[in-house]
């Protein structure tokens, strides 16, 4: 894992610019740095050495000097690819996966991307063809951003590096903010920064003089709902899945340094940890977050699973005030406003891994998207069930079964449940049927937008833009697969893998690895019949079957408890930190121009006096505070000081 930046075009003081860019993302690669400058191109690199520690320095050029690469991530099947290349007569100077990419590109050009099993972002300067090639992994694990200035293409692993380019400014994109306050994340290639873009997952950009093209080299696809499945035997499917998952874990255990594992206490991370424990000659090291509040804490399950594995287990307690204490740093690394506090404990957790002396951890992220584990999938099934008999008073009671961890919901009436979840209110053929309640509830926080921001948006609808991005075959898929696509293609790369994943881990120089996002496993799961993933209201059915001989029954059979963290109450009350009242003051809100100062003041007071505020108020509070912090960090005095340094 690493960070890199670079440019394509003619600029002055290239070495100095690259040095500034890499200095801002040195946390991604604290082990060493390097630069490469040619006539019309330059690359800079900050390295976290995991594979080929002694000889994998970057930027790396081939023997001819015609190809130079800066690379962030890992190619997990590099040994197999290397053997194939050696059989063709290729000679290697290093033991790194980076050199494998150079040889593959030399043979196949950008078509080599289809052979890579990994999490990566890369830039290759192709001197012979005078072109710069940028690419990202299929699922969007590793980030890559770019902008154009005076005819020059600039790119980097994080946006803060691009802000070092003369003339590039940090201005909020109002459309992106509206998308965040509806969908939880901007729709790529849009980012929170106006005129700074994100290369979409599974995409390759080819820049030549006067032309830039972007194309996708992989697509997440599902079968037509009426197509007969070839995977009809559940036992056979579970056996194949177990083999794929075990191989995905095996590949991700490859490193020249020890590999640990996050352990939430749920099915996903426990299964990955169990497989990893059987593959390491050393005692597996596991890491967890605990909470003071019973509503969020899973420590009993974490302890049970760690004991079953014989792991060396470490925990970090996220106590009252901790989230508020680290939140400014969370926004600094996330580089965007967020509506949830969940990234903050993960920021703390990656710090714990760094303190333990590790650089690499496995995680269970991706299983919920790939195997239909989220409540939103079950909720959509119940809503469809209710929609077929909207007058039923029994069916809305099913919503209580979906959310046993939300005590307030258990006390609500049938009428409230039906209204809250929109049972029967959304057309069954709506392409966004599964997500309409979430989008509607989240978008309610936009009531706090200022009049000027509303005028700028002029009725813009983020959900409808999302519809315009759906693939042509989307209406032909099963409703569960439609919902899975929305999660996997938008929320997963836009928020889970970004704000909660790469950015929080790399803030401490930690590389997260995601076995469930191995593209072979993702493609296999997409072909599974929906009932093997969501059987009735039992989520991840096929994954539970795989786990039957690997996990304790208490872990294997427990209902999904989504990872959450305390929201608005983390910031208010006794000991409220000064930056919070400063960011939410009438003067700061008015100066920012994005929110209604009087409405925000009322919300702040409400959260102080009513700590059990609902989803809308929690999302609004966190969203407003994070947006104000974003402005302060990237456009205010802090930003000016950083540029002057």
TrEMBL record:
It catalyses: L-aspartate + L-glutamine + ATP + H2O = L-asparagine + L-glutamate + AMP + diphosphate + H(+). Coiled coil: none annotated. It holds the Pfam family Asn_synthase. The keyword Ribonucleoprotein does not apply. Keywords: ATP-binding, Glutamine amidotransferase, Ligase, Nucleotide-binding. InterPro entries: Asn_synth_AEB (IPR006426), Asn_synthase (IPR001962), ASN_synthetase/amidase (IPR051786), AsnB_N (IPR033738), GATase_2_dom (IPR017932), Ntn_hydrolases_N (IPR029055), Rossmann-like_a/b/a_fold (IPR014729). GO terms for molecular function: asparagine synthase (glutamine-hydrolyzing) activity. This is asparagine synthase (glutamine-hydrolyzing). It comes from Mesorhizobium ventifaucium.
